Amino acid sequence: MKTLFQKKREALVQYDLGIDESKKENYEEAIKYYKKAIKIDPNFAFAYDNIGISYRKLGNYKEAINYYEKSLKIDPNGITPLQNIAVAYQYTKEYDKSIKTYKKLAEIDPQNPEVFYGIGHVYTSYLKEYEKGLDYLCKAYNIYVEQNSPYRSDAETLIQMIYSEMNKAGNKDKFLEILEKNNIKTN
């Protein structure tokens, strides 16, 4: 009979083979290895995460969500599955679930700008709720600036798009008020 250590090591070997296939973008092959890993070790949360990521890369969002949920049963505060399931919900047009998941992630990782960018993106790009989206995007922008991240330009682009939409709707003052509230200066 194999020891627990031997089983975990065997699962890790399969997982690593899956990683190698993922790097080559052979996601169907990667999934086979990750599934072997979870068959050996049913509590291998990272393998569930990577199955989800692989299914997402293949465009099978429902199956991706299924595996992210399995990972979250093992670790309800797993940052990788929470962030990825929020994105998958956008693909399945389950925007409320996406926002709810991002908000849970914000409780766990409040300095993660991707959380606020994700919420802002959902509100602006899908729900067309520009004021709500702007506030979250400002939070993301400020964290990106603080972290000296190049992704701040992504937030800037969406903020500029919101400006255009709010200005057209006669809400320029509200736009400027939200920026001021978030300590963002305009030119």
From TrEMBL:
Q: Where, in residue numbers, are the TPR repeats?
A: 11-44, 45-78, 79-112
Q: Which UniProt keywords apply?
A: Repeat, TPR repeat
Listed PROSITE patterns: TPR, TPR_REGION
| Repeat found in the keyword field | yes
User: Pfam families annotated for this entry?
Assistant: TPR_1, TPR_11, TPR_2
UniProt keyword annotation of Kinase present? no
Superkingdom, taxonomy of origin: Bacteria
Full protein name: Tetratricopeptide repeat protein
